[in-house]
Structure formats: C-alpha cells, structure tokens
Specification:
Largest sheet: 8 strands, antiparallel
Structural class: alpha+beta
Number of domains: 1
Radius of gyration: 17 Å
Strand content: 35-45%
Number of strands: 9
Number of helices: 5
Distance between the termini: 34 Å
Shape: globular
C-alpha cells in the first residue's frame, strides 16, 4: 500500500471492458496508460518491486510517519474470484514444470531479453496475488458484471488500489486475466496493468510519476517456452 487510508485515487482509471473487448493475446498489447518503450536491469521484477517499495517507504516515512494499518483478512467467506488461491495453485504448477521463460524487461528506454529459468513463480507473480480483493471490509466495494464467458469487477470506492479485474473463462477454465491498479497522492501516482494467459504469457506494466523526480516506467513480459 503506497498511501494508507487517506489516499485520493482517480475514480475512473479502469477500462470498463466488455466481453470480447480484450481477447487472448490482445490483452497483452492493449494499455490505456503506458506505451511500452522502457527497459529494465537484469534482476527483473525484484528490481521493480525494490525500487518502488523503497521509494514509497522513504516518502511516507519522511512526510507522514503515522498511517493506519492495512485491513487484515479473516476466515470469512470468499465473495469474489479468489486471485490469491488461483495464482498460488498456478505458481506451484509452474514450479513443477521447470520450463524456460523468454523474458523481456524494459526500463525507461533500454530493453533486455533472454531465456531464464524462474525458480519461484509465487514471487514472480506476486503483483497478481496482491491484487486479490477478498477482504471483509471490501465485500460490497465492487460492482460485478458477468456474462457467459467474462467476469468483471469494478471498484465503487475511488480509494481502492485495485480498480478493475477482468476474468475470461471457457468451459470453467480461466483463459486470461487482466488487472488494473491505480494509486494517487500528493507526492506521486502509480498505475499498473497486469495481464496473464495461463501456460502462455504474462505481462506487467507499471509507471510511477514522482514530483520533482520525474517518471519511471517498467514493462516485463514473460513467454513460456
């Protein structure tokens, strides 16, 4: 969480997609916020998380030392699609497959691609897991739209980080997932688009505008071989 409970978020950064609006590999290519023209150091996603986490901690500690704690989950029933359980199971499955991943990482104009063996898929896909919206306090915080193939959650509360989740299924199996996150405060705003096609490709697009420091953009794409 970048800003605790008094953060002010853009009320409508999600796409409001309908069934068929984003399909298959198309979710990897479409994004309303970022043009993927940046690049990234060799350490990949760990560097992304470390950079933004350290920056956020430094800013919060310097300017606002007292924040409310995060809402803790309890044993209450799951109301929405369980992203945490889904990616926990898929991470374990991918760990057992030991496949190579062709990974392209970009950061502010520099691009690097190579085949890598990912030993910890739970860590690699942690941004997806952290976008789970099944918290007791949020049980009525998302509008639900659903048809035969597509399930969409749209945040009602503009202070929520996860603005929209789109899940496409066929015969009960997930075909793809797209997640839109957004956080804004007086010091910076952060946008994320997370896209996932099982056994095919995942993509993480993240940009942060920081006052006085400028913009950092990251795009990470992994294709399973």
């Amino acid at each position: 969480m970048y800003w605790c409970k008094n953060q002010k978020n853009d009320p409508s950064p999600g796409r409001g997609a309908a069934d068929g609006d984003v399909a298959g590999r198309g979710i990897i290519e479409q994004h309303p916020y970022i043009t993927p023209t940046s690049s990234f150091p060799r350490e990949g996603i760990a560097q992304v998380r470390a950079f933004f986490s350290l920056l956020s901690v430094a800013l919060i500690v310097s300017f606002f030392p007292a924040c409310k704690p995060d809402i803790k989950e309890t044993g209450s029933a799951i109301k929405y699609f369980d992203l945490k359980a889904y990616f926990k199971a898929d991470s374990a499955r991918l760990n057992n497959q030991h496949k190579l991943t062709y990974k392209t990482v970009t950061h502010n104009g520099v691009t690097e691609s190579k085949n890598v063996k990912i030993d910890n898929w739970a860590r690699e896909l942690s941004l997806f897991t952290e976008s789970d919206i099944n918290k007791p306090a949020w049980k009525d915080s998302y509008q639900v739209q659903q048809n035969d193939h597509t399930l969409i959650y749209i945040a009602k509360d503009p202070s929520l980080k996860t603005r929209e989740i789109i899940i496409n299924k066929k015969d009960g199996r997930v075909q793809w997932i797209a997640i839109y996150n957004y956080t804004k405060n007086i010091l910076y705003d952060t946008r994320e688009k997370l896209s996932y096609i099982p056994d095919s490709i995942y993509r993480i697009e993240k940009t942060q505008h920081v006052k006085l420091l400028g913009v950092n953009k990251y795009v990470i794409t992994g294709r399973l071989n």
